[in-house]
Design goal:
The complex is a heterodimer. By secondary structure, chain A is mainly alpha-helical. Chain A contains eleven helices and no strands. The N and C termini of chain A lie far apart (49 Å). The chains are: A mainly alpha, B alpha/beta.
């Protein structure tokens, strides 16, 4: 009895050890440990916490910011701006992109604007947004809407243009009307492109919100990072940066999980 | 009255590139043939001669530049459910739908009630040998199965005329052989009018009642029409070989012509 169980356990260990996901986790953990070691060594070697705070010091800074509620408030504020702007931008960008893809007139009409604004990053509009919309929430949300609309619309348009003509033809000779072709062929075929546009837009939204908060805001993670400089609290800057990375990481994970479950049949790969 | 009648049809394409882009390219000139109800008609020709263009004009995806295309006495104005197309590539399948949903597409678009749809789809999937794969997506099927699905999808709609554009062109030799036998069997049980496009002489002789050989472009036309008075299922007997030799002679001349054409166009100073 006892030996059988011991065998089972060895067998379990062997299988776990051989499994791909376990190997991946192991590499992942090793990678994190390496970063931690390098960081600790560098901080010890530099020896100036105001220049390069150690992991321990940064963790203390994180606890301070968690305790006084600043970190939580900053994360919520930045996330809210991103999510609202991202949602509004997607709601505008998808129909606009579909229209651009479907109508050569709209595509040609929009083309000069697309080619012009393509080279202007949202950060360039920060000061203008503040003049027009003030220091409040509106200016940040408008900037995120701008970057999202752009990315989502262009990707959606490219998706529409990339739908194989045979798919439309097949649907037409199977008895679908033009309207049915749009609803039952074009839209499902374009979903992967829309998802790709949203993924890129999400990354851009993070960049936009942080730069806007650094230039003109009294809250948010960008503000936290920029403001900490005044007090030479370098470990708070570190906390802000790490927080941003984690926020992005988790948002991306959520998008991926949504894509691989709800949108599985559309073969979304993001 | 013939099911399909092509009368002196031509098709001209605008040239998009090259030094003589102002000129037009005359793809087809004076194409003339008729297909009787229930006939299996093969269009055979060297690649690039415009076989697919003929099919697309009959399907209603493309208008003739001059001449007339009549389907059951009526001029073609666009795609219709009485003419179903089986495409060469599997891009025509809807990859976000399962096998069953793909086969159901035409019925669903036309508003056929659910219980009827289920029955018709099951019947046709059985006919093409796809039972057991109802819930697979196209990318989970083999190339041969995907072409079976295309056939089931159009048969579910019960069209009078089947237009098949090199449906087995992308399959390996063994699968192609099986598919040819299967198609012959399906055609015998359903008695549709078929226009089948291929560049494979043996394929045309295995399947068709009549084989039309097209000349090489530009200005491609029907060069000769051969009757295939062989009993089905067909085998490579003496009569078959004699016909093959005859058709081969006709088509080889055209292949040579089209190769000279390409060389001429590519040579400097041409």
């Amino acid at each position: 009895m006892k030996t059988a169980r011991a065998l089972d356990r060895t067998e379990w260990w062997r299988r776990t050890w051989d499994s791909d996901s376990f190997r991946r986790m192991l590499v992942f953990a090793t990678s994190l440990a390496c970063a931690f070691l390098v960081w600790t060594a560098l901080a010890w070697w530099v020896g100036k916490p105001a220049f390069l705070p150690s992991p321990k010091k940064t963790l203390e800074g994180a606890f301070e910011l968690i305790e006084n509620g600043d970190l939580y408030a900053s994360v919520i504020v930045s996330f809210a701006r991103i999510m609202i702007g991202f949602a509004i931008g997607t709601l505008i960008g998808v129909p606009l992109g579909l229209l651009m893809g479907m109508s050569p007139f709209v595509r040609t009409f929009m083309d000069p604007y697309v080619e012009f604004f393509r080279f202007i990053p949202p950060i360039a509009f920060v000061t203008l947004a503040v003049i027009w919309f003030g220091l409040g929430e509106t200016s940040k949300i408008v900037l995120i809407v701008y970057t999202t609309v752009f990315m989502v619309a262009i990707n959606t348009m490219i998706g529409v243009l990339g739908v194989d003509p045979d798919k439309r033809f097949a649907a037409r000779c199977l008895g679908a009307s033009e309207r049915q072709v749009f609803l039952h062929v074009i839209i499902p075929a374009v979903i992967p492109s829309i998802a790709m546009g949203m993924k890129i837009a999400m990354g851009n939204s993070f960049m936009t919100v942080v730069s806007a908060e650094m230039v003109a805001a009294k809250s948010g993670v960008g503000f936290l990072i920029f403001n900490s400089r005044l007090f030479l609290l370098t470990e708070w800057i570190f906390v802000g940066i790490i927080t941003l990375g984690l926020m992005g990481f988790f948002t991306d994970r959520v998008l991926r999980i949504v894509a691989s479950t709800l949108l599985k049949r559309y073969e979304v790969r993001i | 009255m013939p099911d399909v009648e092509v009368r002196n049809a031509s098709r001209v394409f605008p040239k998009k590139a090259g030094p003589d882009r102002a000129r037009e390219y005359v793809a087809l000139k004076g194409v003339d043939f008729a297909i009787t109800p229930g006939e299996f008609f093969c269009l055979l020709g060297p690649s690039g001669c415009g076989k697919s263009t003929v099919l697309r004009m009959i399907a209603g995806f493309l208008a003739a530049s001059s001449g007339e295309i009549l389907v059951r006495g009526q001029p073609v104005t666009g795609p219709s459910v009485d003419r179903a197309v089986v495409f060469q590539g599997d891009a025509a399948l809807f990859n976000w739908l399962t096998t069953e949903e793909n086969a159901e597409f035409g019925l669903r678009m036309r508003g056929v009630p659910e219980p009827d749809r289920r029955r018709i789809v099951a019947e046709n999937l059985r006919l093409v040998g796809l039972e057991g794969f109802e819930h697979h997506h196209p990318n989970q099927l083999s190339g041969g199965m995907r072409q079976r699905l295309q056939i089931a999808r159009v048969l579910a709609n019960d069209p009078a005329i089947l237009l098949m554009d090199e449906p087995f062109g992308a399959l390996d030799a063994q699968t192609r052989g099986i598919m040819q036998q299967e198609l012959s069997r399906i055609w015998s049980s359903r008695k549709k009018t078929v226009l089948f496009i291929t560049h494979d002489i043996d394929e045309s002789l295995l399947l068709a009642d009549r084989v039309a050989v097209m000349s090489a472009g530009p200005g491609a036309t029907i060069k000769a029409v051969f009757k295939v008075p062989l009993a089905r299922p067909r085998e490579t007997n003496e009569e078959f070989l004699r016909l093959r030799k005859e058709i081969k002679a006709a088509i080889e001349e055209e292949v040579m012509k089209s190769m000279r054409q390409v060389n001429h166009e590519n040579s400097p100073g041409a």
